[in-house]
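User: Let's play a game. I give you a shape written as tokens, and you guess the letters that built it. Ready? Here's round one.
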């Protein structure tokens, strides 16, 4: 699964990673948790790439209660195209959630040790996602998103059996392509993960989402 991540990369690095001049504003974050705002890329109605800040935890447009988003922070790649909660967003409202790295916890004799996982070259990346809008009376609609997970690759398998679908560059833009077929999209989600990763143990201070500072990604040693 993906339950906590960080996004602190400079704007210039994001532009270089995705090959597009994207206008966005964000504050560096080192401990992003569900129900908080995340920065994502999507295509607008004119098929232009844009960045937006949406709440993490998908609330489908048909939901009666927005609290459903608390249970929908992740969508499984294996069922995302068919499950009623996600299939319309899969077809029409795909996004890439921007990240500098994500956290995973490894079960050990002494308890769970948190690890920070990032690209091997330390550049920003995207996590395949879906978004939706939920109307609430006459006010602004609630805009939310979810992160898609897939079976862990060999690198991640020792920490967890699931991982976010990590994308960069052309692959991320291909995921957003409105002309992509269902088979092409599923291949991106279920095929081999193309981005090389690195990981190291970090402080258990990350366990508390109140903590949000650069020290959380520092390597710890025994």
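Assistant: Ready! My guess for every position:
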């Amino acid at each position: 699964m993906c339950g906590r991540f960080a996004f602190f990369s400079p704007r210039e690095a994001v532009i270089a990673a995705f090959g597009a001049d994207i206008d966005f504003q964000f504050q560096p974050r080192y401990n992003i948790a569900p129900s908080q705002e995340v920065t994502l890329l999507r295509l607008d109605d004119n098929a232009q790439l844009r960045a937006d800040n949406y709440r993490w935890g998908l609330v489908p447009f048909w939901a009666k209660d927005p609290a459903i988003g608390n249970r929908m922070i992740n969508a499984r790649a294996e069922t995302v195209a068919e499950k009623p909660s996600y299939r319309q967003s899969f077809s029409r409202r795909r996004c890439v959630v921007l990240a500098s790295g994500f956290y995973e916890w490894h079960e050990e004799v002494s308890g769970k040790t948190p690890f920070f996982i990032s690209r091997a070259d330390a550049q920003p990346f995207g996590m395949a996602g879906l978004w939706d809008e939920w109307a609430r009376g006459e006010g602004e609609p609630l805009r939310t998103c979810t992160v898609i997970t897939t079976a862990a690759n060999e690198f991640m398998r020792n920490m967890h059996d699931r991982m976010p679908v990590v994308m960069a560059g052309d692959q991320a833009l291909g995921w957003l392509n409105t002309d992509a077929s269902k088979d092409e999209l599923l291949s991106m989600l279920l095929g081999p993960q193309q981005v090389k990763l690195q990981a190291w143990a970090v402080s258990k201070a990350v366990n508390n989402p109140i903590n949000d500072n650069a020290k959380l990604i520092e390597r710890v040693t025994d």
